[in-house]
Amino acid sequence: MHPVSRKLLRWYQNNKRDLPWRKTRDPYKIWVAEAMLQQTRVDQVIPYYARFLARFPNAHTLAGAKEDDVLKAWEGLGYYSRARNLHAASKHLAGQEFPVSAVEWQKLPGVGPYMGNAIAAIAFNQNEIAMDANVFRVGARLFGIATDRDKVGERLHGILPSGKAGDFNQALMDLGAGTCLPRMPACPSCPLNKHCHAAKLPNPASLPRKKSRKQKPHQTVALGVIWNKDKVFIAKRPNTGLLAALWEFPGGKLENGESLKAACKREIREETGLRVVVGKKLATVKHEYTHLKVTLHVFQCKGNGTPHMQRKWKWVRPSQLKKFPMPRSNHKFMGLL
Predict the structure, then answer these.
(1) Number of alpha carbons in the 13 Å side-chain half-sphere of residue 97
(2) What is the C-alpha to C-alpha distance for residues 9 and 14, in angstroms, rounded to an integer?
(3) Helix, strand, coil proportions of the chain in percent (round to 5)?
(4) How far from 147 is each of 94, 107, 152, 158, 178, CA to CA, in Å?
(5) Which residue among 1, 229, 306, 334 sits deepest, i.e. has the most Cβ atoms within 10 Å of its Cβ?
(6) How far is CA 69 from the centre of its chain?
(7) How is residue 310 annotated by DSSP?
(8) What's residue 238's pLDDT?
(9) Exposed, middle or buried by CB within 10 Å (0-12, 13-18, 19+), for 241?
């Protein structure tokens, strides 16, 4: 075994994080964890992971669930395509054995190279490198590589101890999460300090080389909470695109020179066919996605009749809203109803 691997695995045995998905080799539970962990913090995932598995303990249960129930269990975690892909892939797997190889995992909806490698390595000890941000950062600093992810992967694969891929990958992840930090790496306490290229540099954090971040665009949106007696109107978003298949209050972006109330009235008419009276503002909500910032101006509206739209829609009492999977931005003002 390579000296770096030996030191890393010894360190991992004494310092590994106590995470619920590390207490099982069940590929379904590891798959759910890896899906949730994509672009999401570990501490945020843990409670969702427990609730999701309590509701859908295996792929068979998940495959037989309604999409709204799956999205509701995922509600607030974001990146809802992950939940829809899990749901779709569980149907592909119905009555079949789980794949073992990374290549076979990647044939399932939503499973890319990272997730396929991670599941194959952790659940089945296949000799794969799961290249997330932490693993790339540790490898780039260890070998002195500025930007080339493929080269980092090749070098890490070269020291991967056969049959120990699960521990090796998770050790790299933990080292990156707690020691080899992006801005202030704790080099003196790192078990790989003597072998690390970056540790010998004046500024170890200069590796890997960071990409410049673009400023997120901003959108101003007018939404309407449309009341018809004691019920409010909600509609289901399209099955593709941002927040696909979630339920929401209707509205949309302002056009040039348009007032907020005029935009609210126009967007509702265009989306639903309903003509409404726009009343007082209920709330102003700021929300941020990975690629976009939005400010939602939410208005009380009155309307009735039958909407003319292809998407699903409902008139529901406010107390019933908790049954529907809705965007987090909507939850920020729903309590005011």
Answers:
(1) 4
(2) 9
(3) 45, 15, 40
(4) 40, 28, 9, 18, 22
(5) 334
(6) 18
(7) S
(8) 92
(9) exposed
Q: Is 176 helix (H, G, I), strand (E, B) or coil?
A: helix
Give the angle 28-36-287 at the CA atoms, nearest 5°: 160
Ordered domains of the chain (ranges, CATH): 3-206 (1.10.340.30), 218-334 (3.90.79.10)
pLDDT mean for each 10 residues of the chain (337 residues): 97 97 97 96 97 97 97 95 96 91 97 97 98 97 97 98 97 98 96 97 96 89 96 94 94 95 96 95 94 96 89 95 95 90
> How far does CA 156 lie from the centroid of its chain?
26
Q: Is the pTM of this model over 0.85?
A: yes
Give me the helices (H) in the chain, please: 3-15, 27-37, 42-55, 59-63, 67-74, 81-93, 102-105, 113-124, 133-143, 149-158, 165-178, 260-272, 328-334
223 and 298 in contact (C-beta within 8 Å)?
A: yes
Q: Contact, 299 vs 305, CB < 8 A?
A: no
Note whether 200 and 211 are within 8 A (CB): no
Q: How far apart are the first and last CA of the chain?
A: 62
Length of the chain in terms of residues written: 337
Residue 34 known to be catalytic: yes
- What phi and psi values does residue 89 have, to the nearest 5 degrees? -65, -35
User: Active site residue: 34, 75, 128, 271, which one?
Assistant: 34
3-state secondary structure of 227: strand
Q: Is the backbone of residue 144 left (phi > 0), alpha (psi -120 to 50) or beta?
A: left
Specify which residues 294 forms β-bridges with: 219, 287
How far is it, in rounded angstroms, from Cα 26 to Cα 113?
20
DSSP-derived secondary structure for 11-26: HHHHH----GGGG---
| C-alpha atoms less than 13 angstroms from C-alpha of 38 in its C-beta half-sphere | 25
